[in-house]
Amino acid sequence: MAVNNISASSSASVTPGPPIGCAMLMMDLFRSYLHQQRLPVTHQREAIAMALFESEQHLSVDDLADLLRDRNEQVGKATIYRTLNLLVQAGLAGELDFGEGFKRYEHQAGKARHDYLICTSCGTVARFQRDAMDRLQTEIAAELGFAVQSRRLQIYGLCGDCQAAEGAGRAASSPTSAGAGPETG
Ligand SMILES: [Zn+2]
Q1: pLDDT tens-digit profile of 49-71?
Q2: Domains, the chain, ordered by start
Q3: Which of 54, 91, 162, 166 is most exposed, with the fewest beta carbons within 10 Å of its own?
């Protein structure tokens, strides 16, 4: 991912060419988090999150308000602040304090050490952290001469609830070739 080092003070210029795939994935995780918390996925929340995910800058609430105004999104600062808190709680944004008297925020794409289990059926996202994963990462990186900067692991499958639902809905179908992916063609 290319990172443009534009100083955070120049909030007028927006980094062009955002890493869309990355932002979209982050957005999926945010929606899942909102679902889990039984909070509505509102257009405003999505607009705020997307503005943060697409930026490689450390954004203040004021910066985000400017960004959103440029995009013709009408979002109050209180809503921005609350949404940022949700993003931090979800592990998708990080809070930064540079001693300016206010906080700045950055997305955590590629930075989170947390690993995810994602249900392909209902969208539930389970975050997990295991020391064993960190040790393995260190081991592999050392083996291959890599200086690790970040890790993002997503394991896709069916959550317990969906497995149970599938088992109940499907009358004992014969197990077929192991290792065949869910998608064919
Ligand atoms: Zn599920």
Answers
A1: 999 998 888 899 999 999 999 99
A2: 20-107 (1.10.10.10), 115-169 (3.30.1490.190)
A3: 166
